[in-house]
Amino acid sequence: MGELSQRISGLSPDKLDLLMKRLEKKVAPNLPPQVIPRRPIRSPRAPLAYAQERMWVLYQLDPSSSAFNISMAVRLEGELNVTALKKALGVLVRRHEVLRTTFDVTADGGQPFQSVHTPPSYWPLPLTDLGHLPTPARNEEMRRLIAAEAARPFNLEAGPIFRTALLRLGAEEHVLLLSLHHIVADGWSLGILVRELTVLYDSFVTDVPSTLPALPIQYADFAVWQRQWLQGEVLKKQLDYWRLQFDDLPTTLKLPTDYPRRAVQSFRGGRELFSLDEKTSKELKALGQHERATLFMTLLAAFQLLLHQYSGQDDIVVGSNIANRNRGDVEKLIGFFVNNLVLRTSLAGNPTFRELLARTRDVTLGAYAHQDVPFEMLIESILPQRSEQLVAPFQVMFVLQNAPFPTVEVNGLRLSLLESSTETSNFDLVLFMSEIGPQLAGELHYNTDLFATRTIKRMLERFQNLLQAIVANPDAHIASLSMGTLAETAPLTISFNAPLEESY
Q1: Residues 361, 389: one domain?
Q2: Which of 35, 110, 142, 398 has its CA 20 to 30 A from that of 415?
Q3: Of the given ranges (120-124, 139-143, 275-279, 391-395), which has the lowest mean pLDDT?
Q4: Nearest C-alpha neighbor of 496 from the set 277, 328, 255
Q5: Which pLDDT band holds residue 230 (cuts at 50, 70, 90)?
Q6: Domain span including residue 345
Q7: Residue 479 maps to which CATH number?
Q8: pTM across the whole model
Q9: Is residue 71 one of the residues assigned to a domain?
Q10: Which of 216, 239, 273 is the last residue in one of the domains?
């Protein structure tokens, strides 16, 4: 990627951002843009997309798990037309086949398939009235019901795959619960779901036809097309790149943990929030722009450095995800498109942070340019022998999120997202960062079977210290960039269950 690095070194920040957007939504190499066709036979049965197939395998390992539930709690303030809301949900389910799909295997126990069911004549919306409770008890019961719904597992064979419920807190205050299994949705899908729901609700309240255009294809059409397209020379070129990236890939990132890793991975988790001051946030963005790097690349490089300092390893592997909606006809679909990318960076040789950022930039551009191979196929093709403890080639993820869910108003009804606690974590650590106005904010999700809360809080303090040290002197070699005060910079090598305060 050295040649590519030289070519982009002269790009302005604006042109680099444009390049990244094109890579994130890029059309497959050596293939002209094409429209994904509808499946030849409008059969209710279709194969699974590659991402769905891996999710199906994970579901079979533990059908009672809620680790792959996607749940939202939307506060509705104002006069709610419940009938219009039910009708809007019903149209949404008719519009997106994936919301009325179930999953099974052929009678001989062969390949799994998805079955699209006939839309229901009406959409059920169970209502729980909490208005009679005093405010403290009402809020507590609301939180309990939200958590209970998020933790309720899905039955992929029997369905439904999409659940809704309504909590009434008062005459003009409700909470709408929306839950899906990850096998039919991703983060992008939630935006589509809420946006279309508001359009349809407005249509029924005002008795004006909806402005939503018809969908050109359905998710099952994409699944059929993907399996036909991703083969031959197209697949070979993509896999060749990733085989190089996976050569001698480290088995684990040896972070010091508070508790021993269990024989079978659990998904119990927690999270800690933090924010950077406006000055540090501004300086991080400016540093990235000066180095022709995006904010994602800059924060990823800093996070990799933190992991290097905690683990003592030079070869750092971090996962990230990409929307992977690289054709226009899938942009408006609810479905599981997101793809995981493996970002492997060498911190060997004690580079300066600027040099590390250049390495991270090359790695990121290379991964985006070869994003078409589903993560699930990489695992099966390149890393078939993975421990049951470690189902991915990385245990840590980094995600730069878009702006938070905006407040929406429609016909006197105000929609806003309710924050919910995180009780699951699919990886050891997942760092989410986002821009909140002029500041950068983040939350670190962690596996509570491995880490104690105080350890995570200390890690975040050190990460913030590290970011301040980076912007203060980006030309410093990484070995001299401190995560904390002199008293806190002892080697970070602790055994599980070791007393934390004595380990630093």
Answers
A1: yes
A2: 398
A3: 391-395
A4: 255
A5: confident
A6: 2-33+281-403+423-498
A7: 3.30.559.30
A8: 0.80
A9: yes
A10: 216
Number of H helices, E strands in the chain: 14, 15
- Whether cis (ω within 30° of 0) applies to the bond prior to 37 is no
Compute the radius of gyration of the chain from its Cα atoms: 24
For the cut 60, the answer to whether the pLDDT of residue 291 exceeds it is yes
Q: What percent of the chain has pLDDT over 70?
A: 85
Look at the chain and report how many structural domains it folds into: 2
Residues 6+ apart with CB under 8 A from 72: 177, 178, 179, 190, 194, 417
Report the alpha-carbon distance of residue 271 to residue 457 in Å, rounded: 10
Q: Sheet containing 127-129: which strands, arranged edge to edge?
A: 127-129, 162-170, 173-181, 69-77, 413-417, 408-410
Considering the chain, what is the average pLDDT of its residues? Answer: 86
In 25-123, alpha helices (H): 50-61, 82-95
Domain end among 191, 216, 241: 216
With 0-12 CB in 10 A as exposed, 13-18 as middle and 19+ as buried, what is 307? Answer: buried
**CATH for 149:** 3.30.559.10
What one-letter code names the amino acid at 346?
S
Mean pLDDT of all residues in 180-205: 95
Residues 195 and 323 occupy one common structural domain: no
Q: Are 87 and 18 part of one and the same domain?
A: no
End-to-end CA distance of the chain: 38
Does residue 473 belong to any structural domain of this protein? yes
Is it the case that residue 9 has pLDDT exceeding 60? no
Mark whether 52 and 29 lie in a shared domain. Answer: no
The model's pLDDT over 336-388, given as tens digits with 9 standing for 90+, comes to 998 999 999 999 999 999 999 999 999 999 999 888 888 878 887 877 555 44
